Write the structure tokens for this entry.
Amino acid sequence: MFRRIHFYRELASTNTTAYELALAGAEEGVVVIADAQSQGRGRLNRAWHSPPGKNIYVSFILKPAMAAHQAPQLTLAAGVAVAEVVSQYCPGRVQIKWPNDIQVGGRKISGILSEVKAHASYVDFIILGIGINVNMDREDFPPELHHTATSLKMETKKDSCRLTLLSELFFAWDKWYETILKNGFKSIKDPFLSYAPIIGKMIQVTFRHEVLRGQVIDIDDQGTLWIKNERGEKVQITAGDMEFENT
């Protein structure tokens, strides 16, 4: 599906450039890659450390025929694709932290940022941005990330070829994107849960200054998280920052 690739030595953000290209009429399958980002960002406008020559920063222009409320499912599908690729380098150690962080040994190695432009209730386009820490050493990260971030190099003790990793990511994402478009989230639910063993766990989710706590009871066929709160009520969660609670 990847018809055209735009490569830049440095961008403010691959998502921003991809969004501008989509507004200008770029077709589905256009990909934006940068060697470095000066204003890389993750969810909630958090900065994404993006030095040159080290990592993968890539954004895909997607134009799926789906309702706007279904768009978050693509973030979950992308998580499966990234986890699958990273697992080739770190077998048995990769987990998805709902909804969009990929971790190895509890430390973040990849993040996913989706941005949606919708007309009425249907999607015009989605920009799917993926960042993967590849050849970073501990000292390459800002001090505040030393205990929460990692890279393939740190986990495998060797450099990895970014071009090979990109190729593997393209194949994995193409497969899972096609799967979810044809059969919906229910077709990737089990693979997602295999990387995100969250059912039955006590969690805390923060969204827009509201904090929800409870036990995860399900992820439904729409990709929505359901918890049972402290009052025994079932609560639906579609977004937020999730942390496991000690029990």
Q: What stands out?
A: The mean pLDDT is 91. The CA atoms of residues 206 and 241 lie 5 Å apart.
